[in-house]
Structure formats: C-alpha cells, structure tokens
Amino acid sequence: MEHVRGTAASGPKAAQLAIDLGSDPGLSERAVAEDSATGSYAAWSTEEIVRLHFVLLDDLRRLAEAETPLEERFELLEWVFTEQERELAPFSFGTCVRVVFRTCDPDDVREELRRLTLDWLRDAVTRFPAWLGERILRDPQWAADELHRNPQWINEALLRQVREPDLFGAPPRDASMR
After folding, report:
1. pLDDT tens digits, residue range 5-20?
2. By the 8 A CB rule, do 10 and 40 touch?
3. DSSP state for residue 28 in the 8-state scheme
C-alpha cells in the first residue's frame, strides 16, 4: 500500500502531482484552481513529497552562481538561517535536509553554508561600484532590508549616482545608502 497525502487538485491518483514540476506552470495552475473549487483532492506520494523537498534544497546552488540577483541570494539565506521556532515547519530548511538526507544534521549544513556565504556575497557585489559593494558587505542585513522594502533599490541608487555624480567619487549622500 502506497503512503499518500492530499492537496487541492483533481481526483486522487498515486503518481499525480498537484504541481507538475516538469510542466508549464501556467497550464497546471488553471486545472488546480478549477479542481480546488470543486473540493476534490489529489494524493501526493511519499516520493513526490521528498522530490519537492529536494527541489527546494537544489535552489541553494543559486547562491554560488554569479548571475543570481542579490535579492534572491538574501531570500535563500533567510530560508536557511530562519528562526529556531520555524525549524520543524513543513518545507523549512531543516525539514528539507532531514527528509532528503536522513542522516545529515541541518546545523552542520548551515555551518558549512555560513562559511561559504561571505565568499558568495563578495562575488555577488563585484559587479557593483566599490562604494556600494563595501556597504553591502559591511551590513548585509541593511541591504536585505532595503531590497525587501524596494526590489529596485540598487538600480535606483545606481541611476541617482549616474545623474548626480560626486566630483570626488564619494558615495551618495542618500539616506538609504548610509
């Protein structure tokens, strides 16, 4: 007997995912929304649940990729280093590590990621002007907060710097840059 869990979608089938990880999301959302309205449910197999946990963990590879936007990096790091009370929540970093790598301690993985994070952030800010990169490295929480507040914050700050350059190359005096 296969172990299954339910989620909103069409009638239960052992190998059906409510969210088809390999298809066009626009196509699956419509069907899920229609079936959810009728109150029917699809079953998720244990294998599918483990696969979803693995997909979440696989996103961490984006931390090391040069083209990953800074905002996405901060979101991934916030997921990894979340509050302790969320540690056992479904799909938390700790839960994903325990489900996918049963014998691996999430805290050990966090420590390894913590060691690598500064290098990844240094690589991420190399494309910014020195004044901005130094400011982000000095206070990454400030940068994460600014990006959460306004995802276009960096682009706007760089545009202001181009429009109103300082003759001596000083960083902008804008309050959001302090």
Report:
1. 444 433 333 333 233 3
2. yes
3. H
Residue 4, SS3 per DSSP: strand
Whole-prediction pTM value?
A: 0.65
pLDDT at 80 over 60: yes
- C-beta separation of 142 from 132 below 8 A: no
Give CB contacts under 8 A, 24+ apart, made by 71-80.
Answer: 71/147, 71/148, 71/151, 73/120, 73/121, 73/124, 74/140, 74/143, 74/144, 74/147, 74/148, 77/113, 77/117, 77/144, 78/144, 80/110, 80/113
Instruction: Count structural domains, the chain.
Output: 2
Range of the domain at 87: 63-177
Q: Is residue 133 domain-shared with residue 162, that is, in the same domain?
A: yes
In the structure, what pLDDT confidence band is assigned to residue 133 with cuts at 50, 70 and 90?
A: very high
Asked if residue 83 is part of any domain, the answer here is yes
Q: How far is CA 32 from CA 5, 40, 41, 56, 109, in A?
A: 16, 10, 9, 21, 35
Q: Are strands 41-45 and 4-8 parallel, antiparallel or unpaired?
A: antiparallel
In a shared domain, residues 104 and 17: no
Same domain, 127 and 47: no
Q: Residue 160 in 3-state DSSP?
A: helix
Q: What is the mean pLDDT of residues 25-44?
A: 57
